[in-house]
Hints:
The structure holds two protein chains of two kinds. Chain A is mainly β.
Amino acid sequence: DAGxxxxxxxxxxxxxxxxxxxxxxxxxxxxxxWYRQTMMRGLELLIYFNNNVPIDDSGMPEDRxxxxxxxxxxxxxKIQPSEPRDSAVYFCASSFVGSNEKLFFGSGxxxxxx
Amino acid sequence: GEDVEQSLFLSVREGDxxxxxxxxxxxxxxxxxxxxxxxxxGLQLLTYIFSNMDMKQDQRLTVLLxxxxxxxxxxxxxxxxxxxxxxxxAASDMGRRALTFGSGxxxxxQP
Lengths: 114, 111
């Protein structure tokens, strides 16, 4: 299996622009998670889905952030408008029932908002 | 919710043992995990322990769990320069499927 695939690996944008991050979970996994990693706050859970349905979005920082999972093999995290404080590494992870809650992570998207 | 704490930095010499410590707050956490992150990469699962176990050994890795004190440790025997990375402790969050991560311990292995 190819593992969790995220794109792009790096994104540089200007303040105010819309940013879309993409994730393809491991086939057969029914949970998908979006985490954000910063030096100051470490790894924070933003939102997670089960069977394509958002279960907990309490970590989404503001209305500027939105996430969708239109099908079992694709999810997006959108920031509109982006701000410099959104600069971070965004990770997608997936898991499945019976995995002992282990998470399988993608390589992340390094986002820089200028 | 769950809170997970780790020390930030550890430096050891090649060939020595490394011990990375972690504390957590939610005694109902079912599983506790250790992940490794190398520069520019995602988190890779190293090992995990079920909450009813005290110890788990996996080649050079030994995980010790003190459930009474809510303390978890990872021992790496014969530490190599390739072990230099950030190590994250994580706990399952009762009521949520997600994991709560510590801030990570940067392990530096000196030749």
